[in-house]
Amino acid sequence: MAISTVNPATGEEIKTFDALGDEEIDRKLQLAAETFREYKKTSFADRSRWLTRAAEILEEEAEELGRIMTLEMGKTLASAIGEANKCARGCRYYAENAEKMLADEQIKLEGARTFVRYQPIGPVLAVMPWNFPFWQVFRFAAPALMAGNVGLLKHASNVPQCALAIEDIIHRAGFPEGAFQTLLISSGQVQAVIDDPRVRAATLTGSEPAGRQVASEAGGNIKKTVLELGGSDPFIVMPSADLDKAISNAVTSRTLNNGQSCINAKRIILHEEIAEDFTRRYVEGMAALEVGDPMSENTDMGPLATPQILDDVSGQVDKSVEAGARVLTGGKKGDGPGNFYPPTVLTDIPEGSPAYREEIFGPVASLFRVRNIDEAIALANDSDFGLSSSAWTNDSAEQDRFIDELEAGMTYINRMTESTPEIPFGGAKNSGYGRELSHFGIHEFMNPKTVWVDASGEAADTTGAE
């Protein structure tokens, strides 16, 4: 894919960029390595001041930054402005809490002063996706920078202006030039960067195949990775649920970010007692959404990010219908310009069809009926993915079962899944490993060094020592 800005609402190519050559990449990696040697010595106070300034810039320029996001990947302008402000919130969270999160952890042993000290590991490569072009980056960059690491960003090729804007914000905030750099490179150039000994770790948010490739390359170099991959998240509704709230959240969750989120509610699993009522009202809600110009304040949902994504989503729906699935609303892409696909609801979905188990990265909901909680949990877990899950019930026993038995990195009860700086974010199974956000996220790329200062004056007891 060319590194370029193509307006997904019109198909117009706005701006193109040349990929960095080998010499330019080497220069940036060397700058990262040299910067790290000094940057890791900076104080938490300095880093906090710079990251707080980054938050201020994000808030001050939220509308301008939002327009860049909307232009490049098609999310509504309102949601893009909200994303910029969310990034500011993430920056402030780590600016205020990182020092406490990384404080020495004391271990009590008689005759010794023992503790764990968290130390940064060096330059970290972040391979990031286009769907949340600012938030995905800042939820890596904010903790990494506060921890004393330096970042290298390989952003998706269709959001180069977002990538450059993020680098500019971080530099204007006061961070040294080499503390965070954007690498405008193709996917084919990523392996060489991972192989480079100056790069110490990698994090990727993206597809399962991309995650396998990056993890394999990093593993061959004995470098840690954090992966946040795809999801086919279940959204389970039981008879005791508040249906009004569940239906509203199901519509919002499935069409959030034009249906292009790993944590969208993709498989909606309904207890048979409420299935008919829920389905009727849910279809009405999906069909009522306004699809159109993402810059307009009247638009609920904009286009998909690229023509390829549009073709993929359309193809998955068509194959599912051919296999026997029934369309309740939507289901056909438009004839006009832009990558528009309508909110779509499928039911009577046969096992083996794309809508049954695959992730559909667009505004397509798969509806299923079950007779009881056992069937609901079994169906929810019948997936290679395990990113998040949402269950709607006011029965405390059912809540406990969902919390204990759903195979996912996250379970939300009576709430749609979301990411927020205060809580850890990540998946299980083929949805990846490791965590972002909260104190878990800042610890991922640290060396937890064990320190033992002997004070006993006695010889060490080596019985059973390794």
Automatic annotation (TrEMBL):
Give residue ranges for domain Aldehyde dehydrogenase: 3-451
- Reply yes or no: does the keyword Hydrolase apply: no
Q: Which UniProt keywords apply?
A: NADP, Oxidoreductase
The highest taxon in the source lineage is Bacteria
Q: Where does the sequence pass through the membrane?
A: none
CDD domains, alphabetized: ALDH_SSADH1_GabD1
* Stored InterPro entries: Ald_DH/histidinol_DH (IPR016161), Ald_DH_C (IPR016163), Ald_DH_N (IPR016162), Aldehyde_DH_dom (IPR015590), ALDH_GabD1-like (IPR044148), GABD/Sad-like (IPR047110)
Q: Which interval of the chain is the signal sequence?
A: none
Q: Identify its protein family.
A: Belongs to the aldehyde dehydrogenase family.
Q: Which named protein is this?
A: Aldehyde dehydrogenase family protein
Q: Which organism is it from?
A: Rubrobacter tropicus
